[in-house]
Amino acid sequence: EVQLVESGGGLVQPGGSLRLSCAASGFTFSNSWMTWVRQAPGKGLEWVANIRPDGGEKSYVDSVKGRFTISRDNAKSSLFLQMNSLRAEDTAVYYCARDPHYSALDYWGQGTLVTVSS
Amino acid sequence: DVVMTQSPLSLPVTLGQPASISCRSSQSLVYSNGNTYLHWFQQRPGQSPRRLIYEVSNRDSGVPDRFSGSGSGTDFTLKISRVEAEDVGVYYCMAAAHGIPSFGGGTKVEIK
What we know:
heterodimer, A: mainly beta, 4-stranded antiparallel beta sheet, globular, B: mainly beta, 0% helix
């Protein structure tokens, strides 16, 4: 059974940093593109970033470029999102998802809430 | 990047009646290989999103056959042939293959 479990969310002050993790199991993580998607409270879904299986290619939505870094540890079947210079508008539930092919995100985690507030 | 526009924003439906959601893209979603990477997701209240349909019309395993996807180019539709109580939630289309992937704003399906 495929499982994606996010962790690392919490309350952080504007300008602060947070590192999200996503533990994957039930599939060959090292062969899979992975994606982060976020959802602000009461709002829709926003694609944030993705990473190639070998970590060699990464893409980001413009609003997080230069502040967020996606990475992975294939030996530990884990995905990460390092978030720096956080802003109030980054407040959201962050989901990790598997991308089998052209963003057809077939498995999602339960999400982890990030709140940026003073 | 592609902009995805869904309508309606809210869709009240009587149980057992059909429902239709429109998704339009700002540019053609036909990729260079001839495929169209338009997907549909369902998010029930309090739950994570779930993929329903991928590449326009391919229904996921376990998705009831009352759900169907169609369309081409820039216009796409998700149809529910007979709405059931468990279909309540927000539905999102999502486009990939041209720049950064993007979601539509969502359509909230509720029971009248």
